[in-house]
Structure to design on (593 residues):
């Protein structure tokens, strides 16, 4: 075990050099992005496709908490200045005793339980109605666009003497991002009934 | 294959081999260890056993421990790949870095070691080209530095030895000249002295045949004075030899003329290639040089006591015009061949050692070379080479 621990320390020092991606891994990307006004707030919904690589899936099944973050920046077209920014968290826990997945979305602050691993991970990778900015903060005659990107968090691993590892390793330290087409501010004024 | 490689390349290849031999087993060991590590956490049987055993446990503490054990087992199963990957990556990077670093540092040091040796090699080449004053700048330390110092010291000693040798040769030449001059002067002095004494004696006694004696002794004295005059002229001629006046000349004409002069003395065969190019020479001096060689050949044949002959050949050999004067006379010993062209060196009773020395001087003034090959008691051949840079034929104006 000491030998492994020694290796782990070496791994930890090397972990910033690059991650392990299996050759057949699908690229992680943000998909199914929609923009809407919810409760007079401009919100986005999206999913992270292929977020759970086979290794990450196995890690989740070991009971190790998996943390997935989605960052959404609302920017003004032309000046590229950030009008509003928000970050939401999605946490996936597997309970070895009950053999159930628990998914906690910070946006809705709700907890959903799953028996099926695929359903649980699909839900963890889905972000619904992330409020980014109050609609009244937008100007009717200006154009805006969203920049979304997702990252994996750090987690504590008992097998590594309770050291934390950066889960981004499983994405090879590449965060998926998405820049939307620009849209007119007036579009949200109408939806918000302004 | 390695024989033609430089010392630098050989040493570098040796270093590369040493580095690879040293690092490859390390790499193999790490890869092997990594593959063993890869088997960790892969057993489904262990996973199932742990999972099913949890259900059988009812004590909270023990159950928690079992859950943790299962969690850690699965975590290792997942993370081992990254561990293996990183270990292999680290090993490969380490080996590559060590190899590159060793070779770069090694190359630097090998260059430092071989540079003085290369300088030494260049200096040796300079030395072989008779440049004894060439010195190597010593930037090396240790054994190579000492070698360079020793080489420089050797060069200095060689230079000193060369100067001493030149001085010794000069001294020996002067001694030889003095001896020859003394001998040559002494020879006529005896008849002059005897003639003078005889004349004085006849004069004191008022001899009847005083007139006759006066005539004969005066003739003897004058003849000996003439001999001495000739001797002085010969030495003077060698000492103050004029520069050649070079003109395009047909060597075949000169050769035929000179051979014709000796036809009454010895059997001479003259064979000249018809397409011989014109050569820039001083006709008079070349005639004299060839005459000396033919005279020498005639004397060698006479000394051998045999019925000999002289063969004169001329032809084109590459960029040289080659003239050979060969005889089947008495030949020259190997020891004497070395001194053949030294001034005042002679093996003949009545020679002054000027003929061949003068010939060699004439040929060198024309930018040519003369050499001798001889077998004692059998034959001798003198070969003259003239460098023809732009050979062309002189137009034959003869009808």
């Amino acid at each position: 075990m000491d030998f492994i621990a020694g290796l782990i320390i070496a791994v930890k020092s090397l972990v910033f050099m690059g991650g392990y991606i299996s050759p057949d891994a699908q690229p992680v990307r943000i998909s199914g992005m929609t923009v809407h006004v919810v409760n007079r707030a401009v919100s986005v919904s999206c999913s992270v496709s292929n977020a759970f690589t086979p290794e990450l899936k196995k890690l989740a099944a070991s009971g190790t908490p998996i943390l997935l973050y989605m960052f959404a920046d609302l920017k003004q077209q032309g000046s590229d200045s950030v009008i509003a920014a928000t970050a939401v968290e999605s946490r996936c826990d597997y309970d070895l005793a009950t053999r159930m997945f628990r998914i906690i979305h910070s946006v809705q602050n709700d907890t959903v339980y799953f028996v099926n691993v695929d359903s649980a991970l699909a839900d963890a990778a889905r972000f619904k109605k992330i409020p980014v900015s109050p609609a009244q903060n937008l100007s009717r005659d200006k154009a805006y666009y969203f920049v979304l990107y997702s990252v994996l968090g750090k987690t504590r691993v008992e097998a590594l003497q309770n050291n934390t590892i950066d889960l981004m390793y499983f994405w090879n330290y590449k965060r998926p991002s998405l820049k939307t087409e620009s849209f007119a501010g007036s579009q949200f004024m109408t939806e918000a009934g302004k | 294959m390695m024989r033609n490689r430089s010392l630098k390349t050989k040493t570098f290849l040796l270093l590369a081999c040493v580095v690879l031999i040293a690092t490859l087993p390390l790499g193999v060991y790490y890869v092997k260890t990594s593959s063993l590590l890869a088997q960790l956490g892969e057993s489904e049987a262990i996973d199932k056993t742990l999972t099913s055993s949890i259900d059988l446990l009812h004590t909270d503490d023990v159950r928690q421990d079992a859950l943790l054990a299962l969690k850690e087992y699965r975590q290792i199963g997942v993370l081992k790949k990254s561990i293996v990957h990183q270990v292999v990556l680290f090993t490969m990077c380490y080996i590559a870095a060590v190899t590159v670093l060793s070779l770069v540092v090694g190359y630097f040091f090998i260059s430092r070691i071989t540079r003085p040796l290369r300088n030494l090699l260049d200096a040796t080449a300079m030395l072989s080209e008779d440049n004894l004053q060439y010195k190597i700048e010593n930037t090396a330390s240790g054994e190579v530095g000492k070698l360079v110092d020793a080489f420089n010291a050797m060069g200095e000693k060689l230079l000193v030895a060369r100067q001493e040798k030149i001085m010794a040769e000069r001294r020996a030449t002067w001694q030889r000249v003095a001896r020859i001059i003394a001998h040559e002067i002494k020879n006529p002095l005896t008849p002059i002295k005897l003639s003078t004494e005889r004349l004085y004696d006849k004069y004191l006694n008022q001899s009847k045949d005083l007139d006759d004696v006066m005539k004969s002794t005066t003739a003897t004295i004058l003849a000996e004075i003439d001999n001495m005059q000739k001797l002085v002229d010969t030495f003077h001629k060698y000492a103050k030899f004029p520069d050649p006046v070079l003109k395009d000349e047909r060597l075949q004409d000169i050769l035929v003329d000179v051979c014709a002069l000796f036809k009454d003395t010895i059997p001479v065969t003259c064979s000249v290639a018809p397409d011989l190019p014109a050569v820039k020479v001083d006709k008079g001096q070349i005639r004299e040089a060839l005459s000396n060689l033919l005279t020498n050949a005639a004397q060698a044949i006479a000394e051998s006591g045999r019925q000999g002959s002289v063969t004169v050949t001329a032809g084109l050999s590459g960029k040289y015009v080659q003239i050979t004067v060969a005889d089947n006379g008495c030949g020259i010993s190997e020891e004497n061949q070395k001194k053949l062209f030294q001034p005042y060196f002679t093996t003949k009773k009545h020679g002054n050692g000027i003929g061949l020395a003068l010939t060699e001087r004439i040929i060198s003034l024309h930018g040519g070379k003369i050499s001798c090959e001889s077998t004692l008691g059998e034959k001798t051949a003198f070969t003259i080479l003239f460098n023809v840079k732009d050979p062309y034929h002189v137009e034959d104006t003869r009808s």
User: Anything to note?
Assistant: The two ends of chain A are 64 Å apart (CA to CA). Chain A has four helices and twelve strands.
